[in-house]
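Could someone model magnesium ion with this protein?
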Amino acid sequence: MPSKLAAPRGTQDIFPPQTGRWQELEARIAALARRYGYGEIRTPIFESTDLFVRGVGETSDIVEKEMYTFTDKGGRSMTLRPEWTAPVMRAALQHGLFTQGPQRLYYLGPIFRYERPQAGRYRQSHQFGIECAGYAEPQADAEVISLAWDLLQEYAIGGVTLYLNSIGDKTCRPKYRDALRAHFAPHRESLSADSQRRLERNPLRVLDSKAPEDQALVASAPRLESFLCTDCRAHFEGVKLALEAAGVPYTVDARIVRGLDYYTRTVFEFISDALGAQNTLCAGGRYDQLVGSLGGPDVPAVGFALGLERFLWAIESAGTSEEARREGVQAIAIGSQALQALLPLVTGLRRKGAGPVFIDYGDRKLLAQLKIADRNNARYALILGENELAAGSIVLRDLVTRTDRPLPFGKDTLEALGELKG
Ligand code: ATP
Ligand code: MG
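Reply:
Sure, complex below.
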């Protein structure tokens, strides 16, 4: 295949057996979200570029350099969804969901960011996330965090830490911004180019810097905690109390500020030490001003996004993903007459839906077909050769215990196979 036809850089093809792991994870996510009372929302894969510029913020990495933006044939600027929160809030606002009261929504699907591809960082990746909109109370923050925590617990991935912080609100953050500017300004020249630029527009983002030359100054920067206003402080204490009530352990870390502009008060990240440099599994926070900035009413909200690629990677490195179980039946016919006779049974088994039913249509010997059964990871083989056909019987072979059981072959065979499991 010419290499220019290969999948674009930073994207992945996902196929069996890996798709099975995705489906399993997606099913667990749906079940967990349901238990917490969250319903699924699906939004378009592209939106008006303005939505992200306004919603995510002009000084965010996403808007500054990561968006897949194109002009459609009608001359409108469109962008492939780089994150879900702004589209979810846009949809809820557009359809009047907020007028019905608080909303608990979850999403699962692809995002697109023009990033430098590397392990754990793709140009098309997938996120699961939730948004809890309509509650300003700290218990909502803890609920959201607790749901993420439960998902991570289900897989027993070791070495996961929840880092928690408060970045204040419009009352206290401006003062903190000034203090940060005052701290960094005298050392401007020694900061990375990115940080120098951010220092003007959004000095909090300097704290988020991964550049080595910034680390010493970041470490000595003033802490937001001492700047928090009374309300933000009370909120932060409320979140901690509610997390304790939910039995979720956390570590307060002043360096967690998050890269998206819309966060207020609570921000958090779940970091795994099983991953390399891209070690944030899940990140989120409270964003009380987002809906307002989209032209809606003030709707306090909190949510998180979890990267499915990184999560599956962590599950695999923890070795908690099970070996694929043998499952289903390989129907094996020797000769064209036997094949014709076996087809109704194959159809019958498939319609009963007890498990996968495999069949090979090539004219192959028994041994070759048993190899195919192994490749399919089938639990049983149903073997119909010329001798069996003549004798009116069929052989059921258990491929795990390697035992054969002859069964009468006829219209009752399907019935007799009724108890076949797995
Ligand atoms: P980072 O600092 O790693 O760039 P971010 O702040 O851009 O992360 P968010 O936008 O909060 O990340 O996304 C939440 C989660 O989505 C991340 O913690 C990560 O698991 C996942 N994620 C984000 N971008 C990518 C990507 N390009 N490839 C794979 N997963 C990603
Ligand atoms: Mg990023």
